[in-house]
Amino acid sequence: MKLRITVDVFSGRPNPTVILEGRAAAEAVERLRPGRTLEKGEVRLPSWPILGYRGLIVEQVGRGTKRLPREFRIAGGQLLGAGLSHEPADPRFEDFVYGSAGPLRRLIRGRDFIDTLQRKVDEFRRRQGSVTPGEIVPPREVECPCAPLYEPNVWNAMPRQARNNCYNYATNVRTDSFAQPGFAAGMASLADAELTCAGVYPRAIADQLIDAPDAENGCPDEGHLVALVIDPLWDYHWYRKGRNSRWSHKPGGQPVTDLDNAGALIADPRSAARGPYTEFCTFMVVMHGHVKIF
User: Fold this and answer.
1) For residue 217, how many other CB atoms are within 10 A of its CB?
2) Which end of the chain is more exposed for a tag (fewer CB within 10 A), N or C?
């Protein structure tokens, strides 16, 4: 038996993943055994993709147990998946994964990463159940004739959804590689210290995106508008402006959405609820057929 456990926390960068095998996998399955069924209204994970920590994605690889789906999520001590809406036998399973003797701690060298991740998990728990979508008031629609249509189902089909991130979606280029800024131009992976506006911006320029700091949320004459935001020293995220002038985004391997972290339609990414992505960097323009990403 094997379990693949992915910490669903990034939007731009690939999420950290660990593999449990043999006895470790069997023990994890026992900890994850479904307990009490959650009552209607108890599920505290928002029904739309959010930015920030979203829980653990657990996948059974090869021959597994029929007591659990092939893939499911545990977030804030709740098991969620196909036919699954329960409390786990061990409600602190997430803490086990991040703990001092947990599999993630053994995989990742560097206390700073684990400590930052734990703060994000704690913040998720503090906010859990407090974010519900209010009345959705559509912004005034102004046609952006050169921008892509908002067609979330195109991106939300598997395996495309899991293999493309916010950068793929913003540039409207499918690579199935979780594209990283600057990779197509031969630049190395982003170091943690480079996860700033000044670190990501030149990589986007190298990929042929055009800086447009004075765009002021308008529609460009050619191409379409995107926006870069940063969770400082942790991750980056991109939004794109669609043909109907609304903004949408793709939080990592999660589905495309036109809602922000507060469940509101996004009229302007500068004022949207962005969770931990607190720094707005700049607007940029994607010229169709010119951008090269990988």
Assistant:
1) 15
2) C
Do residues 21 and 262 touch, judged by C-beta distance below 8 A?
no
What is the C-alpha separation between 71 and 59, in angstroms, rounded? 4
Quote the percentage of the chain above a pLDDT of 90.
84
Q: Give 214-228 pLDDT, tens digit per residue.
A: 999 999 999 999 999
- Look at residues 107, 105, 106, 128 and name the one whose alpha carbon lies nearest to residue 115: 105
Global pTM reads 0.94
* 227 CB-contact burial (10 Å; exposed 0-12 / middle 13-18 / buried 19+): buried
- For the chain, how far is it from start to end, CA to CA, in angstroms? 33
Which residue type occupies 239? Y
* CA separation for the pair 38, 247 (Å, rounded): 34
Alpha helix ranges (H) inside 151-274: 152-155, 160-163, 166-171, 197-206
Task: Catalogue the long-range contacts made by 102-111 (C-beta closer than 8 Å, 24 or more residues apart).
Answer: 103/5, 103/18, 103/20, 103/24, 104/5, 104/7, 104/16, 104/18, 107/16, 107/18, 108/16
In whole angstroms, what is the distance from residue 174 CA to residue 167 CA?
9
Note the pLDDT tens digit of each residue in 243-289.
999 999 999 999 999 999 999 999 999 999 999 999 999 999 999 99
Tokens (6 digits) for 159: 């395996």
How far is residue 265's CA from residue 260's CA, in Å, rounded to a whole number? 6
